[in-house]
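Q: What would this chain look like folded?
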Amino acid sequence: MAADTAHPSGPSAPGRTSKLAIVGAGAVGSTLAFAALTRGSARSIALHDVNRAKVEAEVLDLRHGLMFTSPAHVTGSDDVAVCADADVVVVTAGAKQKPGQTRLDLAEGTIGLMRQILPGLVDVAPDAVYLMVTNPVDVVTYAALQISGLPRERLFGSGTVLDSSRLRAVLAERCGVAVGNVHAYIAGEHGDSEIALWSSASIGGVPLLDWVPLDGRAPLDAAVREEVHREVVDSAYRIIAGKGATNYAVGLAATRIIEAVLKDEGRIMPVSSLLDGYHGIGDVCLSVPSLVDRRGVTGTLPVPMSDDELAGLRASAASVRGVLQRFGF
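A: My prediction, written as structure tokens:
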């Protein structure tokens, strides 16, 4: 069956070629396309950007590497029709975050952009699962749900998947273990009010709060945990200050989310979705450990939280709601 054929049975239906559409050919979108191509995430990759010269150049560059990847078809255009019948649509287009600017500062321009682009995308890819990567991702995801009218399970944000990867990387380095042995989540807003779920974290099966340091390393006491958390929160600002944008890790993180959908993995990931009574929190998009499969986000895990963690999650929800109300949501 051709890559652009309709698929009522959902993304990656048996016998069907998968198609990934990426909206925005900037640093994040082009890096995401490269990551998806090298990982063999989808058989067809389409790039869409209003800058025709830029998107055509990115596609040409990617095509020149096809000899070294799994078989794939790469295309791109300034016409939204290039996204037709995609299984997954990833939206990376938005205002660029400047040094010293918070993610929430980006909200106004980005919401306006969503009003422009989403109706056309839904017209050409009505059955797709939509992944929002544009910051501020929690605000953008909520607004996109209202603008698009898509079901809550089929439109969600990349959330704190990247933040959780950052947390695991920092903990692994401090503890002298492989990143794959660290299991820990960042929850809440993808931004300054995000929280670390220390009480459910573990290293090699040992609860993090019971971790005994190896080789004379520092214990993970409250002060060290606060240092780790601050390093995670500040890391994006450091990267933006140094090179102007974050792109590699977010491209890889988004690719793993895409694969969870296209391969129907049933993977637990802290994506940002519309909550409804999660620990008493609702009507806001926040990141909590969630089940991601070919249908999108199909459930949230009621992870045990300490009183401080729960208070932090509620404060994060209030912060995001405050921004949404500012823009009439």
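The mean pLDDT is 92.
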